[in-house]
Structures are given as structure tokens and as C-alpha cells.
Amino acid sequence: MPRLLWPLLGLMLLAGCAGNPQDRPELTEVDQYREASKSLESKNYLTAIDQLKELEARFPYGDFAEQAALDLIYAQYRAVDYPATVVAAQRFMRNYPAHPRLDYALYMRGLANFNMERGLFDNMVSSDKSSKDMGAAKDAFRDFERLVNRFPDSEYAPDARSRMVHIRNQLARQELHVARYYARRGAIIASINRAQYVVKHYQQTPAVPEALAIMVKGYERLEQPELAQKSREVLTLNWPDSKFLDDDKQVSLAWWPNEDDGLLSLLTFDLL
To answer: pTM score, two decimals?
Structure first.
């Protein structure tokens, strides 16, 4: 290389180094948290997540560590990253078990689990599958239940209670969906078992009357009139105006299969 080019090349390298972002002075904890807060206020949640994670990595025991951890839960929830929200909330509860805002972390974990199931609940009626993974819904229910039991006066408790009612109704509805699935395929015992589960575990939900009606029809199909009569009496006594009772107080289910599938009615097919 000609000697005259060496000085020019050196100047170019120096110019490049001068513009390297890594050479900029690192932000203080206060400044870095301020930047993350601005990103949150501007609804730039993905940017805020990166900034909060960097803050956590650089200042794990800093003055803003606890608040940054709470902000990270919120940012990930607003970014619709529900699995990450659950993880962040769990980490906060593990690291700060006595924090005065522990109810918030628990509530946000419940919300994230709740929203992970929304697609399932919304599409349940049109689905032709016999089983669904209701794990996140049950996790959400446990989170909200823990919240209202441990922090009954929390500002988040009323909404948590409301969501618990919704989740119970949806879980019962799913059990009915499965009971219908089995009945239509001749698995009468399995259908009755699902209906019994609704009556036992989801009392005071709108699903109970139909569950009792399924039990009546199922026992009739299995030629067990005493059990059918007991289920009918419970239905008639508690829901005398139920749409599942005709004018003669006999159970009526429009979708109930007309033909017994023989051997299939003796199998439970309890695959869920």
C-alpha cells in the first residue's frame, strides 16, 4: 500500500471509533429508569422492556430495582406477551415476597393467564373437538382466588372476584361441551360422569340444569330409572321453569342422540 494512504486510513479509523455508540458514557441508574419510564408513557412497550431488562442487569440491587420489576410486568402485559408476563410476575413474587404491591403482581399474573384462555373461550362453541387444555384458565382462577383470600381489601379484589365467576362459568361450559361430545358418540357413561362433575364442582353456574338433564337422559338410556328420577327431581325442584323440561316435566334435550350405540355406551372414553 502506498505510504500516503496510511495516514488517511488512520484518520478514517479514528473517525469510526469516535462514532461508536459503545464509547458513549453509560447512563446512571436514575437516567436509565427515566428513559424506560418515558418509553412506557409513550406506549413504546417493546423499547421499555429492553430498557427495563438492561436496568435490571446493570443495577440488580439498585434503588429502582423493585419498581423496574413491576414496570416490566406491566410492559410485557401491554405488549401482549402473556407468557413473559407470568414469568415476570412469578419472579417478582419470589424475589419480593413481602412487597406492599404483591397483590398487583398476583393480579397481573392472573390477568395474563386469563387472557391466554380468551381465544379458547371465544371459540369453544364453534369447536368440534372434545377436549381443550384449560390449564391457563385454572391457573388464572387460582391466582384470583389467592388474591381475594390473601388481600381481600385490595383494589384489584373486586375485578378478581368477577373474573372468577366468569372462569367458573366457562369451565363448567367446557365440561358440558365434552359431555355432549361423548353422548353423541354413544359413550353414555362418560357423558354422565362429565355432567356429574359439573353438578358437584360448578354449583350455582348456568351449566347445572343442562348437566342434570344429561344425567336424566343418560340414566334412562342405561335403564336405571331410579337414578334418572332422582336427577329429574333435583332439576324440577330447583329449576321448575327450565328450558330442559317440557310441559309434563319430562326432560327434553333436542340434541340428544336417538339411537343407542350399544357397546360404546359401556365405555367411558375418558381421554381428557
So the answer is: 0.77
